[in-house]
Amino acid sequence: MANRRNDVSTAVPLTIIGAGSIGQRHIGVAQSCAAVDLVCVVEPDDTLRATLAQQGLPMVANIDAAPADTRAAIIATPTQDHADSTLMCFDKGWSVLVEKPTAHTLDAANDLVQRATAQGLPFFTGHHRRCHPFTIAARNALSELGDLVGVQGLWSLRKHASYYDAPWRRAPGAGPLMTNLSHEVDLLHFLVGEITEVTTLLSSASRNLVIEDTASMAFRFAQGALGSVLMSDAGASPWSFESGSYENPAIAGSGEDYLRFTGTKGALAFPSLTRWGRCDAAEIEWSKPLLRHDAPDFTKVDPIKEQLIRFAHVANGGEDDVICSGAEGVKALEITLAAALSGRNGHPVRQGDVPGKFTGI
Predict the structure, then answer these.
(1) Which end of the chain is more exposed for a tag (fewer CB within 10 A), N or C?
(2) How far apart are CA 303 and CA 324, in angstroms?
């Protein structure tokens, strides 16, 4: 099925754990979403909890203080806490959507998937890009390209200088590789299929920090296609998912494509879904121009809200093949860590080669 999701008839009692920047994004969406009933927000920081309580939010200090009728949780805490908080929610029998990455190590992430399966609990990772209508449509559009040969991506957004005023943003693990790559990996998994091998080159020449500011990855996909992605938070460009999709109001939009797919019968640009294909019934070859097909306009949505609606639907017993399962989240984490390991060791890293306790540092 390409997209199975129905409106839920019963609002799911929802707890949001963590009220930082991404947590507050989830809070705002939950307050406007009829599919859920936001019963409380868990925030251990006394000052922040008091501030949000004054705004009328139902605040508690820990998971054990959440209302007994809670049935689902969104975990938006720092990565190091993902596993512990998820396990506590499983112990209470709650469905869980945990922000990416699923956990801080593969061992911890795999343990969460095993626990969810054993208890029969819905478990998802918050790779929300899947929930855009144009992303869902891209999977069908790629089928028009024949056998996929390759994909090329360029994600380059120059972060402002004050971004690095916070010491943790200059510390190992805070560069674009571990901060941004998992988004691209899951998107490619969703559109193309699993990545089985990655080779990475790293550079810190632009900012001269201990962390990389630029990373170049070469990928091998299970079905035979090859890919490359250049990522940089030092290079200024109009090419990124955020710029091309206008998804993030904090990032200037451009409407430019940043991924290009080529197949034996044509090519596709993303996120516009502009497609090039055969111009006649004869052989497709380089002496003949390709015919351009412009994609229809897609309804603009808040992907965080769409993800929440899908999550609530599954928590109510429904099915969905778009939202990122916990197991799929583990696969995105594995390839992200593989890219980090390759950059550190200077050689290709395949599926299965990442140590279970490796954190990317």
Answers:
(1) N
(2) 13
Q: Which residues pair with 267 in a beta bridge?
A: 262, 276
Q: 238 Cβ partners below 8 Å, 6+ apart?
A: 244, 254, 256
**Residues 304, 32: contact at Cβ < 8 Å?**
no
Q: Return the ∠ at Cα 334 (arms to 330 and 339), rounded to 5°.
A: 150
Amino acid at 174: A
pTM listed for this prediction: 0.93
Closest by alpha carbon to 37, among 60, 68, 15, 65? 15
Strands (E), 51-207: 59-60, 72-75, 95-98, 123-125, 148-156, 195-203
Reported as type and span, the H/E element at residue 4 is none
Going residue by residue through the chain (361 aa), what tens digit of pLDDT does each one get? 334 444 446 899 999 999 998 999 999 999 999 999 999 999 999 999 999 999 999 999 999 999 999 999 999 999 999 999 999 999 999 999 999 999 999 999 999 999 999 999 999 999 999 999 999 999 999 999 999 999 999 999 999 989 888 888 888 888 899 889 999 999 999 999 999 999 999 999 999 998 999 999 999 999 999 999 999 999 999 999 999 999 988 899 999 999 999 999 999 999 999 999 999 999 999 999 999 999 889 999 999 999 999 999 999 999 999 999 999 999 999 999 999 999 999 999 999 999 999 999 8
